């Protein structure tokens, strides 16, 4: 590592939870090794550049973390262990599906009018007849010690608040998925805020996980700032305006992908992203990145249509487009449903009845009810399998 990179890392002001975060990463690594699990390290969200040591003002960039969080959901469902390195308060796996409601999480809540007035001995639960809501026998509680952003613990309902009947299924579905992976130890989360924190954590986490070798994917989806203010050039307190113009000098953030590929986890599958507004520039940037860093995959996005298609660039292979469409698994499921319909009608239906079933199936629109991250994930898992075979 050159003096430029050393100076950058020396200027990072780490948050107080760094030691605890690294210990959780070590425990996660041991669980993955014990279970011979495939692992994906997903970085997600944007990084900020503080103007002051006691930060009031900062530069930010465009990224809410949806791609990283959705990708984490997909890989968890496919059996991977996921270490989710994300921007503080950015979108999180499963939790995001409630945060992105048309209004906010309060929409899901209702008032419990059947707790006898004390609000202390009634849990929010499914209603009679399986309708959901307040009352009934099936309790749904959220443990605030594990994830305070979901809601306060509903084992003891304060102020008579519970999940409203209309949304009980939706909330419990997402919560139970999150709970399953969190308690199994296959999901671990670490937060960053500044660009310095992000790269410092990426360095140390990837070094720790490098023992997984080809079983590890590094999926670098975070939007990393290109410039920063070194700590020794940063104002200590809030910069005063004094009705004057302000000139700030920013230094370039050192490019760390080369160290990730060559030094931090050289035997793992590395995925990076490029986002542009022009197709020609996008392809040029993707090819240049592959040539410079010699890693496995660059996923290119156009800002105008990044939710519908991306382009995969690999070493010594033709690029190809991945679209938002039915996954192979979903196509197989639909085919099985069609075969089941035909089979159930075989003993009592005529040929014309079977043809009617096929015609009705063909008339039905093929609905794609999932985000493009599922298609990206499906293709990436296929490429990762090939990488493991090649390197073992």
TrEMBL record:
<protein>
    <recommendedName>
        <fullName>DNA/pantothenate metabolism flavoprotein C-terminal domain-containing protein</fullName>
    </recommendedName>
</protein>
<feature type="domain" description="DNA/pantothenate metabolism flavoprotein C-terminal">
    <location>
        <begin position="213"/>
        <end position="335"/>
    </location>
</feature>
<dbReference type="GO" id="GO:0003824">
    <property type="term" value="F:catalytic activity"/>
</dbReference>
<dbReference type="InterPro" id="IPR035929">
    <property type="entry name" value="CoaB-like_sf"/>
</dbReference>
<dbReference type="Pfam" id="PF04127">
    <property type="entry name" value="DFP"/>
</dbReference>
<dbReference type="InterPro" id="IPR007085">
    <property type="entry name" value="DNA/pantothenate-metab_flavo_C"/>
</dbReference>
<comment type="similarity">
    <text>Belongs to the PPC synthetase family.</text>
</comment>
<dbReference type="GO" id="GO:0015937">
    <property type="term" value="P:coenzyme A biosynthetic process"/>
</dbReference>
């Amino acid at each position: 590592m050159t003096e430029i990179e050393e100076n950058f890392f020396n200027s990072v002001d780490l948050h107080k939870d760094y030691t605890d975060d690294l210990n959780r990463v070590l425990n996660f690594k041991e669980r993955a090794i014990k279970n011979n699990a495939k692992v994906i390290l997903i970085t997600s969200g944007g990084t900020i550049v503080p103007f002051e040591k006691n930060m009031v003002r900062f530069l930010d960039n465009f990224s809410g973390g949806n791609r990283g969080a959705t990708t984490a959901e997909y890989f968890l469902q496919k059996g991977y262990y996921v270490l989710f390195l994300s921007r503080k308060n950015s979108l999180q796996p499963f939790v995001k599906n409630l945060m992105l409601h048309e209004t906010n999480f309060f929409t899901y809540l209702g008032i419990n009018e059947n707790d006898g007035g004390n609000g202390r001995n009634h849990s929010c639960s499914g209603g009679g007849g399986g309708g959901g809501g307040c009352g009934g026998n099936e309790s749904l509680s959220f443990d605030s010690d594990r994830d305070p952003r979901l809601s306060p613990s509903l084992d003891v309902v304060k102020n008579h608040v519970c999940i409203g009947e209309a949304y009980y299924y939706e909330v419990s579905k997402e919560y139970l998925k999150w709970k399953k992976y969190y308690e199994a130890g296959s999901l671990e989360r670490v937060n960053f805020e500044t660009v310095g924190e992000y790269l410092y954590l990426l360095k140390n986490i990837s070094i720790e996980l490098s023992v997984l070798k080809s079983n590890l994917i590094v999926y670098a989806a975070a939007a990393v700032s290109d410039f920063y203010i070194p700590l020794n050039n940063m104002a200590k307190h809030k910069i005063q305006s004094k009705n004057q113009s302000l000139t700030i000098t920013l230094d370039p953030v050192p490019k760390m992908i080369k160290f990730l590929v060559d030094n931090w986890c050289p035997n793992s599958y590395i995925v990076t992203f490029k986002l542009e507004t022009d197709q020609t520039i996008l392809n040029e940037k993707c090819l240049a990145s592959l040539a410079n860093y010699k890693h496995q995959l660059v996923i290119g996005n156009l800002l105008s249509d990044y939710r519908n298609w991306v382009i995969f660039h690999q070493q010594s292979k033709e690029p190809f487009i991945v679209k938002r469409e039915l996954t192979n698994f979903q196509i197989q499921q639909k085919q099985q449903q069609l075969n089941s319909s035909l089979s159930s009608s075989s003993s009592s239906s005529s040929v014309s009845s079977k043809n009617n079933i096929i015609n009705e199936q063909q008339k039905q629109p093929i609905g794609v009810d999932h985000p493009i991250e599922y298609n990206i994930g499906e293709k990436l898992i296929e490429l990762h399998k090939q990488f493991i075979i090649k390197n073992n």
